[in-house]
Amino acid sequence: MRVIDLHCDTLYKKTVNNTPLDSRDNECQLCGTKDDRKLQCYAIWLPDSLSGDEAEQLFFKAADDLKRDCKRLDISLLKSYKGIKEQFEKNQNSAVLTVENSTALNNKLENVKKFASLGVKMMTLTWNAENPVGGGVESENGKGLTEFGKAVVREMEDSGIIVDISHASQKLFYDVAENARRPFVASHSNAFSVTGHKRNLTDKQFEIIRKSGGIIGLNFHNAFLNDNPDNACVNDILRHAEHFLSLGGENTICFGSDFDGGTLPSDIKNSSVYAEILELMLKQGYKEALIEKIFYRNALNFFENFDNHQIM
Predict the structure, then answer these.
(1) Residue ranges, the chain, pLDDT below 50
(2) Among 88, 97, 119, 154, which one is most buried in terms of CB atoms within 10 A?
(3) Among the listed residues 266, 269, 277, 274, the one whose alpha carbon sits nearest the alpha carbon of residue 226
């Protein structure tokens, strides 16, 4: 089984608790059997409660921690999307460093290039609150991109860092859509039409990302899967997938589990759930080619081609 997961918070959990990346307490585990291949995007989450200095320091610590653990565990820490297909085929386990909340920049535009030099390949612009780049989904005024935010988006695109709009306010989302010169993503967001949570994407937002050539990661957090979170289950992941597929998302949807960062449904314990999702899709008549796209090929194609997208 081959899987690419666009988002988990395991790196934050590891860094603040000083635990190993492969701790059995983590929900996110890289595939362990000989024939498996998994590429995991490890986000360092920066809570809104942190100051810019604190967020910046936590980012650099997390980047060092991930590099150290990947070396210890013989995980390939990818710093470039060039040749990622070859790496995915060759290495049993691969990792990508990402950032959740651009507060980590600490108001320093030059940190974008510095982050890129350390291997950051994707950054979520906000978490839930407002930060110097713009408004998160729970910010009081729903602010869009600030002037600094526009400069950050340009610098990210120039530096090869993917813009991620999960957690964005409505205004921020549409400002990014207007200003982005490259495809952008929602690394861990579901369908608002299926579950009416403000963190989920409207059909219009999905269409904008799809048309941009971006991708969307299905989130396993119970409140994003079901209007009654206590009733959320694995089958809800397929409900969101099927809605996005009905909107033409065959080449757009992926996984963005939010392991170690969200509240999972009672029937999901950890990343072993991918085997169950595979079985459910087969039972429901999903074609093998479509399953491959959702499990890894859409993300792999996006990553492989990202650096080739001309900046408009």
Answers:
(1) none
(2) 97
(3) 266
